From TrEMBL:
E3 ubiquitin-protein ligase that mediates ubiquitination and subsequent proteasomal degradation of target proteins. E3 ubiquitin ligases accept ubiquitin from an E2 ubiquitin-conjugating enzyme in the form of a thioester and then directly transfers the ubiquitin to targeted substrates. It probably triggers the ubiquitin-mediated degradation of different substrates. Mediates the proteasomal-dependent degradation of ATG6, a component of the autophagosome complex. Requires TRAF1A/MUSE14 and TRAF1B/MUSE13 to target ATG6 for ubiquitination and subsequent regulation of autophagosome assembly. It comes from Brassica carinata (Ethiopian mustard). Keywords: Cytoplasmic vesicle, Endosome, Metal-binding, Transferase, Ubl conjugation pathway, Zinc, Zinc-finger. The keyword DNA damage does not apply. This is RING-type E3 ubiquitin transferase. Residues 63-99 form the RING-type domain. Transmembrane segments: none annotated. Pathway: Protein modification; protein ubiquitination. Residues 29-48 are annotated as: Disordered. CDD domains: RING-HC_SIAHs, Sina. It catalyses: S-ubiquitinyl-[E2 ubiquitin-conjugating enzyme]-L-cysteine + [acceptor protein]-L-lysine = [E2 ubiquitin-conjugating enzyme]-L-cysteine + N(6)-ubiquitinyl-[acceptor protein]-L-lysine.
Length: 311
């Protein structure tokens, strides 16, 4: 629930057409020194398959302060102790090893040696088995398809990240998100005071469909000066996989209806980015209250939809 949010009740009726799934916890860890022989990966890019260079030089490239790999400019003290440029400012220009003043000495020899190294992606434990030239590693990791996903829960600031199985368990256990099997859904959203749009609660339900997970969001917010309700779907996976699926949403009553059809957005795109792009079913408040019937003092919306796989 958003801070100060008003309560939003949800009644779920889900028609199960999907497959059961088994959730396995996956420990997210960084392992840059694995000696296991990697198997060939399907990831694209300039990486190679095989063993990476693993000798004393590799250990020398680890900053003694933050333990991250160092990239130019690599600094050293007069006694030859090295550290990264970020930590140089943190230690107030004093060598953390011998306490000598650092000055502005560059370790050009270590920077040059690093060019000859090939190192694994930091997400090797998550499935990326490519190796890269030392100075290409960071650029690859920014776009690696195995990099952890951020938690898709939008009702609070959550810093948890991990692979999909880890996030599924996290959503269920920590955020108490409803989990349902099926590729069709039928939601009834009820809100007692529909005029309080700004502080409405974000609703999230996760569906297991075709062995994959989809996040159905429903929320109220201001679109310019107009209060609206919005429903949209996000895919728990990367963008290329998301394009293999489509979904539709429908809401209506009294002989009228609104429909939406689209491609689910990857959770690589933040909740706010998807919402602000208006990539989903948008229902103006006046129309939502008309669909609700009665005295227009209570929101009662029934949103139906389905997910299918593109051939």
């Amino acid at each position: 629930m958003a801070p100060g949010g008003s309560a939003l009740k949800e009644v779920l009726e889900s028609t199960s057409t999907g497959m059961d799934y088994e959730v396995k916890m996956a420990k997210v860890e960084v392992n840059n020194n694995s000696n296991n022989k990697p198997t060939k990966s399907s990831s694209a890019g300039s990486g190679k398959y095989g063993m990476h260079s693993n000798n004393g030089v590799y250990e020398l490239l680890e900053c003694p302060v933050c333990t991250n790999l160092m990239y130019p400019p690599i600094h050293q003290c007069p006694n030859g102790h090295t550290l990264c440029s970020n930590c140089k400012a943190r230690v107030q220009n004093t060598c953390p090893t011998c306490r000598y003043e650092l000055g502005n000495i560059r370790c050009l020899a270590l920077e040059k040696v690093a060019e000859s190294l090939e190192v694994p992606c930091r997400y090797q434990s998550l499935g990326c088995h490519d190796i890269f030239p030392y100075y290409s590693k960071l650029k690859h990791e920014q776009h690696c398809r195995f990099r952890p996903y951020a938690c898709p829960y939008a009702g609070s600031e959550c810093s948890v990240s991990g692979d999909i199985p880890t996030l599924v368990v996290h959503l269920k256990d920590d955020h108490k998100v409803d989990m349902h099997d099926g590729c069709t859904f039928n939601h009834r959203y009820v809100k007692s005071n529909p005029h309080e749009v700004e502080n409405a609660t974000w609703m999230l339900t996760v569906f297991n469909c075709f062995g994959r997970q989809f996040c159905l969001h429903f929320e109220a917010f201001q679109l310019g000066m107009a209060p609206v309700y919005m429903a949209f779907l996000r895919f728990m996976g990367d963008e290329n996989e998301a394009k293999k699926f489509s979904y539709s949403l429908e809401v209506g009553a009294h002989g009228r209806k609104l429909t939406w059809q689209g491609i689910p957005r990857s959770i690589r795109d933040s909740h706010r980015k998807v919402r602000d792009s208006q990539d989903g079913l948008i229902i103006p408040r006046n129309l939502a209250l008309y669909f609700s019937g009665g005295d227009r003092q209570e929101l009662k919306l029934r949103v139906t939809g389905r997910i299918w796989k593109e051939e």
